[in-house]
Specification:
One of its GO terms (cellular component) is cytosol. InterPro entries: Elp3/MiaA/NifB-like_rSAM, Methylthiotransferase, Methylthiotransferase_CS, Methylthiotransferase_N, Methylthiotransferase_N_sf, MiaB_methiolase, rSAM, rSAM_horseshoe. The structure is a single chain. It contains 16 helices and 21 strands. By secondary structure, it is of the alpha/beta class. It folds into 3 domains: about 130 residues, Rossmann fold; about 250 residues, pyruvate-formate lyase- activating enzyme (Alpha-Beta Horseshoe); about 70 residues, OB fold (Dihydrolipoamide Acetyltransferase, E2P) (Beta Barrel), CATH 2.40.50.140. The strands form 6 sheets. A 6-stranded parallel β-sheet has the order 2-1-3-4-5-6, sandwiched between helices. The chain has a 5-stranded mixed beta barrel with strand order 17-18-19-21-20. Strands 7-10-13 form a 3-stranded parallel β-sheet. Helix 1 links the parallel strand 1 and strand 2. The relative contact order is 0.07. The structure holds iron/sulfur cluster (SF4). Iron/sulfur cluster binds next to helix 7.
């Protein structure tokens, strides 16, 4: 039976996991005739894929729903229907409250239910009242979603390997909105990645809320950790780069650390959130590690892969954070040094233990002052890190066109945005680029020739140890073919 074409607009908030989930929702809805649209206007279905991590997340969703209501009414006046759905963590946390406050919403569903979307859409289309689904179903959505990688994902793609979290940090909603930690089977992940690579993907980022807690079943019947999974993925011909995010220090085991020294495709950049440098605050956050535990892990990572760069997350102004606690955070940043980082003022997430901590709450002014101090220090480190790459040759994966004619944009091994004048045929390729300009947040460079690659490889080895893989020459031949 032919399915009529319908337009689907998904607005994604928050993390890479949500970006990935939005892609999967589009995959699930494609057989029902829904095709991706660039904007909400005129769409037959609009899904807000929400994030609950940041402050006022739900208020932002409600104001967006207000705007969508007008568009829904315009469509209705023309005799057409716009289905409005709220998915993701705000949907999971607020559930029926969303329908109560915004009755024009047709579907509210949590992150564990995306495989049930066709059934929910059928119910919504029948119009028998709003559909609310915030279950944690017994079946795994990963087993029931269509296989990832069947359609081209582009040069750089996400692969979800685990979801949920059992850590229960006292400030975080993830264990409540995403549920208990669950790892996909290694066979599924390997198969999907092979398909993606066959379709032109050269870089994958393994995704999970607590990705290094990965403990999936291997094809040998044993439980594989993330290190083992990465080693197997690295065997896939044509896969040039592997990344993973987001990690917890407690799950950074020796096998994963040693993979950083042994797997050239594993990029020398790790996002390893620490949140605070004070043991007292780390305990209040229920982080299950101390500041020195974190320092030791960083040392081991850098021993395994010299030149490895780090990013992190910091929360300032957690309830009870004293001036000494805050000074410990600044000390930790100074000791570790970061290539980039995210930092936020603490703000209470309803339903989390920290939201009930009344003692020692800081004023907004105090939190702002601390945030400024942390951000100044981190920005200084980021500038210094970028400046240290000036004149070196970095492998850049060009994944899109730049704003200017003849310009391509890509990412360095350290996730810096890099722009260079380069022909379109280099899109989707890992290309040696000499860094000729640095700014606070990006690099500019020139694509180098075969001869200069060899010179630069030697020069790079003597200076900072950014990784120049052995296949750099092969890649260069490819790009000049
Ligand atoms: S480990 Fe990460 S996802 Fe899990 S509770 Fe803590 S902050 Fe949230």
């Amino acid at each position: 039976m032919a399915t009529s074409r319908k337009k689907l607009f998904i607005k994604t908030y928050g993390c890479q996991m949500n970006v990935y989930d939005s892609g999967r929702m589009a995959d699930v809805l494609a057989p029902l005739g829904y095709e991706p649209a660039e904007e909400a206007e005129g769409a037959d279905m609009v899904i807000l894929n929400t994030c609950h991590i940041r402050e006022k997340a739900s208020e932002k969703v409600y104001s967006e729903l207000g705007r969508l209501r007008l568009q829904q009414q315009e469509k209705a006046a023309a005799g057409e229907r716009m289905i409005i759905a709220v998915a993701g963590c705000v949907a999971q946390a607020e559930g029926a409250e969303i329908m109560a406050r915004a009755p024009h919403v047709d579907m509210v569903f949590g992150p564990q239910t995306y495989h049930q979307l066709p059934e929910m859409v059928t119910r919504a289309v029948r119009g028998a009242g709003g559909v609310i689904n915030t279950d944690f179903p017994v079946e795994s959505k990963f087993d029931l979603l269509p296989g990832e990688g069947a359609t081209p994902q582009g040069p750089s793609a996400f692969v979800s390997v685990q979801e949920g979290c059992d850590k229960f940090c006292t400030f975080c909603v993830v264990p409540y909105t995403r549920g208990a930690e669950y790892s996909r089977s290694a066979a599924q992940i390997l198969e999907e990645t092979r398909r993606m690579v066959a379709n032109g993907t050269v870089e994958i980022t393994l995704l999970g809320q607590n990705v290094n807690a990965y403990h999936g079943e291997g094809p040998d019947g044993r439980t594989w950790g993330l290190g083992r999974l990465i080693r197997e993925l690295a065997e896939i011909d044509g896969l040039r780069r592997i990344r993973y995010t987001t990690s917890h220090p407690r799950d950074m085991d020796d096998d994963l650390i040693s993979a950083h020294g042994q797997v050239p495709q594993l990029m020398p950049f790790v996002h390893l959130p620490v949140q605070s440098g004070s043991d007292r605050i780390l305990a209040a956050m229920n982080r299950k590690h101390t500041a020195d535990d974190y320092r030791r892990i960083v040392d081991k990572l850098r021993d395994a892969r010299p030149g490895l760069a780090l990013s992190s997350d910091f929360i300032v102004g957690f309830p009870g954070e004293t001036a000494e606690d805050f000074a410990a955070t600044l000390r930790l940043i100074t000791d570790v040094t970061y290539a980039s980082a995210y930092s936020f003022k603490y703000s209470a997430r309803p339903g989390t233990p920290a939201a009930a901590m009344a003692e020692g709450r800081l004023t907004e002014d105090d939190k702002s002052a601390r945030l400024e101090a942390v951000q100044n220090l981190l920005a200084e480190q980021q500038r210094a890190f970028n400046a240290g790459l000036l004149g070196t040759v970095q492998e850049v994966l060009f994944d899109r066109r730049g704003k200017h004619a003849g310009q391509l944009l890509g990412r360095s091994p350290y996730m810096q945005a890099v722009h260079a004048t380069a022909p379109d045929r280099l899109l989707g390729q890992v290309v040696p680029v000499r860094v000729t300009a640095v700014s606070a947040s990006s690099l500019g460079g020139e694509v180098v020739t075969t001869e200069s690659v060899h010179g630069a490889a030697q020069q790079g080895a003597a200076a900072r140890p950014p990784f120049i893989s052995p296949d750099i020459k092969a890649n260069h031949q490819e790009m000049t073919a």
